[in-house]
Amino acid sequence: MKTGIKENNRIFPVTRIRAYQIISKAAEKTEIEKDRRHPHVFRHGFAVNAVLSGVPPMVLRRWMGHAGIDTTLIYTKILAQDTKEYLRRMKF
Fold it and tell me: 65: alpha, beta or left, given left = phi > 0 and alpha = psi -120 to 50?
């Protein structure tokens, strides 16, 4: 039995308008700045967290619905900030 997210399935079964309503309502109850109360910020945070959790870029590309890998690779820039840890993990 094959499971998982299929290419044309949504991760979250809501429209972008409904996502905006949900996030805006939840953010009103917090001290999140008004300009940060947007689904795009949530989406970006999801992608960054996925990268930091080790989700492969090609998988993240499918989850995010990006047409090309270049858009997804923007999120991997956060990993390039401190390269010493990668060098330390390398086996010679």
Answer: left
Distance CA 23, CA 26 (A): 5
Does 67 fall in a domain? yes
Please say if the pLDDT value at position 11 is more than 80: no
Distance of CA 61 to CAs 23, 25, 71, Å? 23, 28, 8
Residue 61 CA from chain centroid, whole number = 9
Question: How many structural domains does the chain have?
Answer: 1
Measured CA to CA, the distance from residue 24 to residue 19 in angstroms comes to 8
Other CB atoms within a 10 A radius of the CB of residue 47 amount to: 21
Q: Which domain holds residue 28?
A: 16-89
* pTM, to two decimals: 0.64
Cβ atoms of residues 38 and 64 within 8 Å: no
d(CA 17, CA 24): 11
